[in-house]
Write a structure and sequence with these properties.
heterotrimer; A alpha/beta (about 230); B alpha/beta (about 400); C mainly alpha (about 575); B: about 400 residues; alpha/beta; D-Maltodextrin-Binding Protein, domain 2; 2 domains; 6-stranded mixed beta sheet; 3-stranded antiparallel beta sheet; 11 strands; C: about 575 residues; mainly alpha; MetI-like fold
Chain lengths: ~230, ~400, ~575
Amino acid sequence: MVSSSRTSGLVLDHIVLRLDGQPLLDIDCRILPGSVLTIMGESGSGKSSLLDFIAGFLKPDFRAQGRVILNGRDLTLLPAQERHIGLMFQSPLLFPHMSVLQNLMFALPSTCRRRQERRDLAERALADVGLAGFGARDPATLSGGQQTRVALMRTLLAEPHALLLDEPFSSLDRTRRGEVRDLVFALARKKGLPVLLVTHDEEDGLAAGGQVHRLEKAARKGRTYSAASADLA
Amino acid sequence: MSRLLAVSLGLLATFLASVAAVAQNNAPTAEWQATLDAARGQTVYFHAWGGEPRINAFIGWASREVERDYGVRVVHVKVSDTASVVSQVLTEKSVGKDSGGAVDLIWINGENFASMKENGLLAAPGWAQTLPNWQYVDVENMPTVAIDFTVPTDGQESPWGMAKLVFMHDSARLQTPPTTLEELLAFAQANPGRFTYPQPPNFHGTTFLKQILASTAPDPALLSRPVDETAFATVTAPLFAYLDALNPVLWHQGKAFPKDAAHMRRLLADGELDIAFSFNPGDAAAAIASGELPPTVRSFVPDGGTIGNTHFVAIPFNSSAQEGAQVFANFLLSPMAQSRKRDPEFWGDPTVLNVASLPESDRALFEAQNLGPAALSPQDLGPVLPEPHPSWVSALEDAWSARYGSR
Amino acid sequence: MGKAGGLPDVATVLVTTLLAGPVLAGLAGTVLPAFGYLPVLGHDSFSIEPFRKLVSMPGLTTSAALGFGTGLAASLISLTIVLVFTAAWAGTDTFRRLTRFLSPLLSVPHAAAAIGLAFLIAPSGFLVRLVSPWATGWTRPPEVLILHDPLGLAMTFGLVAKEVPFLFLMTLAALNRPHVQEYLKAGASLGYGRMATFFKIVLPQIYPLIRLPVLAVIAYATSVVDVAVILGPTTPQPLAPRLVGWMNDPNLSLRLMASAGALLQLLVSSGALLAYLLLEALAGACLRPRLANGHRHGREAGARISALLPMLTILAVMSLSMALLGVWSLARSWWFPAALPQAWSLERMLDALWAGGPSLGVTLIIACGAATVATGLALWLLEARGRRETGRLKVLIFLPLLLPQIGFLFGLQMFFLIAGLSGTLTGVLLAHLIFVFPYAFLALSDPWNRLDPRYAKAASSLGASRARVFFRVQLPLLLRPVLVTFAVAAAVSTGQYLPTLMIGAGRVVTVTTESVALASGGNRQIAALYALLQLAVPLAGFTLAALVPALAFRNRAAMRLER
């Protein structure tokens, strides 16, 4: 399953982010399929902007250099919806106007046309995370852990080629956190997805098992402390 | 038995009248036939004051008649102020829209007509006298059907109805109304706050000023000529002396005035006022019939007569339905339309036709009518005082607003 | 995405042309005649004669002062009532209940409110009738000057009654910002009174959101025509209604002077705006140092009651006025001192309804058309511009609200005539858009900006196209504000009188133009009925805006309105 050819994985190729002309961070690394790169840093260090850049959402007031390459394909100029990069946020962000099942069906690629088939796939995904029968529910009636699990399955149903996790466990209480975290990493490994995890929780970094990089808060005078260039290959 | 006979005769007369009308219409001149042919299928946008449901209903009836008989569709555009229609045509002219204008026919007279005529906003002269029904118009006894506020109509507008200033009072509160201007002033001084007039430049307010002017001017002949600045002061001196005496005892001490005649009539109905006036001799009767005035309201005209005039329909220069508009104007002059218009049940507006000159059957339409207790007979309506030249209007209005319109 | 900052997008260009084009053309059509240039009347050289003539008009200063004074006073009073009430009662049950009553009042057209109010408070009006003659001994209405008073107090009151609901709803929308409730709690936990918390903590945060509506209210109130005619002084009238009179004078040469007057009106309105901005700066400078002075203002029971009273008064007055219009629409005769009509007539009401049918249809078509286009355009503009700054664009969008309508309508009329759109439904719709769009943008931009951007990100990262994200995620999430925007837009469109009359050339007849024409005849029953018809369109819109989301999301807890 896991291709280990020289082009596979998520490559962040000499990326430099600038805000209002001031360099904010730079990074140069490659994340192999099935492995996790954890980026740790305080708020304001630019980690969310990095995720925005990779996923294709960078705000106009930022300027960026460098390329994002996923499995040999340069994504830098592609619109977000064509990048096949799954994104999970601090909160589950289930669409509140849809049922749980509709949320999942929204993510299914349109190549899967038959309604019944879409429904079955979504139901199966729910069952996979122990939420069989929750399809008709209003997302707001689910617990935090349940919502995060649905959000995870929603992300995976869209068949992403890489995962970006923006502190997705921070909203969960301690007991649930480990459980959900393990589930995410297990599924990502199983599907052979390169994962970029942004967090400020040491525990998350340890649990990820991969390399950990720390971002320091950008200094005033334009000097940047940043992740050392890391090539995990 | 004799009643029954009379009714049957009346019905017969009505029947014959319509036969006669059809017979007349069956033999039009070649010229008028050409107009009728061109008019068929046209839509006429008739811009006419729309404040009175009864009048609107009358226009609606007339529209249905001409659509059925002549294939002309008439759309009543209800207007709150005729001057805004003049303004519309002017704006069209100023951007060079010489055909296909929004207005095909307009209900008009006086200053608005003078203004449109002077600025070349009207269709070519002469059409009004070529209408088949013009032959019945009472040109001899009613000079105002051809001379509108001293301005010759030149056939650029076709007469439609007659207006005359008539006062109203509620007989439940005021048995004997004042019969002269002096008595009116004395009444107001004895009953402060119970009389007022609409604020000039409102049409009715200005008419009230003209009424006093016409009754007090040392030399009324001056009024039929364009206003002369030096003469103005002497001619209007008695007017303003009168108003100066009246102002402090008016409704709200003259600090506020009603917006228009309708507002004033409402104040009469509510008992804030004891006396109001209207430009339609049938107004009180009609307003009683519709429940807007108490049944105790009566009409009166001061000694010496009141201002009277004629109202018309005119066609703007850029109308694209001129023939249709003429056909409608002609219908409005027909004995059938004129008699229905005079009936207080429908409107109560006096006719412009010489009833005596009508064919027997048409005359019967008018003679069968009962105008009600609040209406005045022709002799009680008194003599008609002529309108002054239109240029007096703005002069009066400016002088009024300088004296009483801003303090 | 991937848009470089340089070129503006299609939506921005479209909106700019749609708004700036007509406004500038309209202004030109006013400025040129003001300086003596109107070739069709034979005036083809420039002069300052129109201004000289304007200045010589009796009572001009009083008129201008009345426009300035009543407009500014009404706006300030309305704002104070709304802020003090919100400060004292936000978050309480009373607040919630009053909110439910105040929202529908937004759909009452200005003219209808003024007519109802006039009948309520006139010397022969309902209030006097209630106590006459048994308590007062009055068998005739007392000779007191209540309406049309020279200082414009009745007019100011009418404006306040109408602007309070508008400003209140704008404040309510601003209170929907995240964390406002927490700030209120934080203030209380530090020992601050409810009102002190609002003024010291919450207001500084939400004021930027209500500032623009306040400015729009000032511009409107200083140049209002219909309310001024029904309630305002008459000797002389405020400037705006006098202008309309001059513009419509049969003596066509008065148009030049009227144009000069329109420029004066522009000056009056901008003067009032400037005065407000000065007051604002002054208040800011005086109050900012007091923010941190530690005064808790804990005892506030008296202040809270007095904050409630004006609001309740307005609510009662407006509801009673509307109820009276309802009674009048059925009353054939209703004379002083009867507290109830002497004669009823259902028949005439049905006749009038029948006759008014077509105009109601046209009103609905135009209102729905203008509201759809305006809401769609506002959504498109917001979506296309993403989160980019809209400062300069905003000024442009709100230009039609900050300029007095009569300042550029006459020029606008010529512009539409040249374009061949005069007298057409399309023309009227376009003219309405100029005034409707700013309100639509005002109503929608805050909910749009408050929508968590991560929903759209989540959806695109799931592979959804920009269109799919918009139609399946953003639009449904914003269903309620979008429908409210639609209703506001439809209400604004329904209320347009002068633009409909002038661009429609009388051929496009709405319930509003019809109601003004009928009102000139003084038949109160018909006037009341048409006022109610005018109210029906926006009311239906607001009802739909409340019902549809409630039905569509009846099983979605997070989509429920929380307040």
